[in-house]
Prior knowledge:
By secondary structure, the chain is an alpha+beta fold. It has a domain at 3-86. It contains five helices and two strands; from the N terminus they run ααββααα. It has helices at residues 3-10, 14-26, 56-66, 71-86, 94-108, and strands at residues 33-40, 46-53. A two-stranded antiparallel sheet has the order 1-2. A hairpin with a 5-residue loop joins strand 1 and strand 2 (46-53). Helix 1 (3-10) crosses helix 2 and helix 3 runs antiparallel to helix 4 (71-86). The protein is globular. Residues 86-122 are annotated as: Disordered. Pfam families: Phage_pRha. It comes from Halomonas saccharevitans.
Amino acid sequence: MSSREIAEVVEKRHDNVKRTIEMLATHGTVHPQIEDEPSTDAMGRTRITKTFHVNQRDSYVIVAQLSPEFTARLVDRWQELEQQVAQPKVPQSFARTAKAASTSTTSTRQPVVTRSTAPASG
């Protein structure tokens, strides 16, 4: 997650979020990756802005430092991101669902073996 996303979640200015991340990184509490990214300023000009990228754990620490009341929003955002990655494909029609169900049923059927219960002659 980027420092920009964190700023949006906690409704803080990006420069304030970056300052908090830098302070936490100085203490060794978080370990962000730093990237220069293009952004647009209030005048519509393109600028290069230092942006931090952090993992899930570090984002929780940063948000807890910035604004504890927004920690729940951060948890919700991470859950959304995880769902986007792990979302299984669901058939879009009843016919596809029925076909998928019948295919999975027929592929798991085992041949039936019957034994005769009549005594062997001879």
